Structures are given as C-alpha cells and as structure tokens.
From TrEMBL:
This is Endonuclease. The keyword Plastid does not apply. CDD domains: NUC (cd00091). SMART domains: Endonuclease_NS, NUC.
Length: 335
C-alpha cells in the first residue's frame, strides 16, 4: 500500500522540486545507487529541499527538558534538542501563554518525547516511528558488557496501541528493522543496549542499505569519539517529494503491516562534534532508502544542514548558535 499527498508549490519552489525530480528520482530502482547517480542526486539536494515535515515540538520540548531536570537519562544531559521553528501558540479563551478552557479535557496530541537510558526520541504516531532520535557517543560508552544476542526487538508500550509498530508488521515485508540509535553505540550497559531495540527506535530499512553503507556511517560516527570530546548524533527519516508526469509533486511512500508503518524514502544523520577547545563542527548526511554502493565515500553523502532542516521541519543551527558562537559546518568539498 502507498500513501500520497499532492502538494502545490510556489514558482520559487518549483525549481527546487524540478532539481529533486531530476536528481533523487533518477535512482535506478530497484538496482544499486552508483557513484554517478549519487553525485547527481546530492547536487539536486544541495539546491534546497522545500518540503517541511514533522510535528510541533517547540514549547513541548522545553516542557520535557524542565520536567527531566536532573533525572537520569540523556534528556537531562544533551545541550541541544532539535525543534521546529514555531512554539505551541497560546489558545483563545485562556490566560496569555495558557490553553485555558479549551484544554479542559486535554489536548488530543502534542510532541511525544521519550527519554531512554541511551537516547531521546520524538515519536510520530502517524508514521509509527520516530521523527528523530538523539544520542551521545563517548569512548567509554562504546565499551562494556552490553550483549546484542541478549536483545530482542519489542513493541514500545509507552506508545498507544493504535499508533505503534509490532514485529508482525515487519514479518515478510522485505525490510530490516533498521536502528536509528545504533545498538553498537551503547555497549556500556545491557539496559542501554536493550533500549535501542524498542520498535519506536526502528524504521523499515532496505537490507542492503542497513547492512552496508548505513552501517559504514554508523561505524564512522563511533570513530569520531577518538578525535572529539563529545559526539552527538541525531538520526531520523525523511519523506521527500517527487514531481511526476502530470507536473504535480507528491510525497509517496510504502506502508507495511496491519499498522501501516511508514517506509521512509531517505534517512538523515546529523553529527554535532564538540572539540576540546570549545569549537563545534556539524556534519549532516542523507542516504536514500535504497541499495547504495558501499564503496562510495561517505563524504559524497554530505549535504548542507539547511537541506535537512527544510525537509524535516526541524531546526539545528539556531539552537547550536544559541549555545556556541563558533560553528563550522562541514559539507562535501569542505576542508
């Protein structure tokens, strides 16, 4: 089954979408992405994506941060949570900044944050998966007694049964249960590794990608802990538009299982790197959810962070600059 949402675009956006159509949509389905096809696609993405996705986090993220306070778990430690540009607005009929009478029986949905032993995620009940997962990598956290063979993928019972994925959804689908926060990033305790096997931390991923190019990116992320004081990794799905023969742009993606778990068209990974001198480096990657030639250098997948911000509806740079004035963004071709 596929889900599609037609969209009208402005004249200024149409050129971006045309570049995307001639770039990402040239993927040799169902074959493997070649270096040439990837270069064309990445060039299109760098022009700037125009689709904004994601649920409103703003005020809700700050509420969860205050609520976590000094509590254990990553939420109390991370310097930056990705949020959307606009905060939750005040509702009419109540005091300034409050929801008043309209919220008497609760709001039907706000940002769903989960703070685990090893990561924080924002959950999207529509897709049955995470909007983003944020984790901190340090050398000592990559070592320990965490045993992957003792872990099992399991439902996240903190998510309502209407809105969560099950193992049955993946059975026979042809997709891997691809980790967003990788299990190998959290060997420091069995509980931390177990937490990475919640299906809320998983997305349907093409096996060839999961086991090769994406795995290489995860290994590279871990290797950076040898050079940087702190490595923060934010990973999530993308659902990118394509312009079809009728000239209209659509977001189309497959869904699997009886719970209609959304299959992303692409994945992003943003690395926030803290050097010992206080400098911050930012490296942002996008890979298509398709077979990718694993011999392609990872630097070919680098994209400007604003491309991911536009496509996901999230913001990274303003939050980082609010805490650190020294930011170096690494993209393909940077030195």
């Amino acid at each position: 089954m596929a889900v599609s949402r037609p969209g009208r675009v402005s004249k200024g956006q149409r050129k971006d979408l045309e570049d995307i159509r001639t770039g990402w949509s040239k993927a040799p389905a169902p074959g493997t992405w070649t270096a040439l096809a990837l270069l064309e696609a990445m060039r299109a993405l760098r022009v700037g994506l125009t689709l904004a996705l994601g649920a409103g986090l703003g005020a809700a993220a700050e509420h969860w941060r205050r609520q976590a306070g000094g509590a254990p778990g990553l939420l109390g430690r991370v310097p930056v949570l990705p949020v959307v540009a606009a905060d939750l607005p005040a509702l009419p009929g109540g005091p300034a900044g409050g929801t008043g009478e309209l919220a008497k029986y609760g709001l039907p949905g706000v940002a769903q944050l989960r703070s685990r032993e090893s990561y924080v995620l924002s959950y999207d009940p529509r897709t049955r998966g995470a909007l983003w997962v944020l984790e901190q990598l340090r050398p000592e956290r990559l070592r320990g007694d965490g045993d992957r063979s003792a872990c099992d993928f399991r439902e996240d019972d903190s998510v309502h049964a209407y809105h969560r994925a099950t193992n049955a959804d993946y059975r026979g689908s042809g997709f891997d249960r691809g980790h967003l926060a990788a299990a190998a990033n959290h060997r420091w305790s069995q509980r931390a590794m177990n937490d990475t096997f919640y299906l809320s931390n998983v997305a349907p991923q093409v096996p060839h990608l999961n086991q090769n190019a994406w795995n290489n990116l995860e290994k590279y992320s871990r290797s950076l802990t040898r050079s940087y004081q702190n490595v923060y990794v934010c990973t999530g799905p993308l659902f990118l538009p394509r312009t079809e023969a009728d000239g209209k742009s659509y977001v189309k993606y497959q869904v699997i299982g009886k719970n209609h778990v959304a299959v992303p068209t692409h994945f992003f990974k943003v690395l926030i790197l803290e050097a010992t001198g206080g400098q911050i480096e930012l490296r942002s990657y996008v890979m298509p959810n398709a077979p990718v030639d694993e011999t392609i250098p990872l630097e070919r997948f680098l994209v400007p962070i604003e491309s991911i911000e536009r496509a996901s509806g999230l913001l990274f740079v303003p939050n980082i600059l609010a805490r650190a004035g020294n930011l170096k963004a690494i993209t393909a071709g940077s030195k």
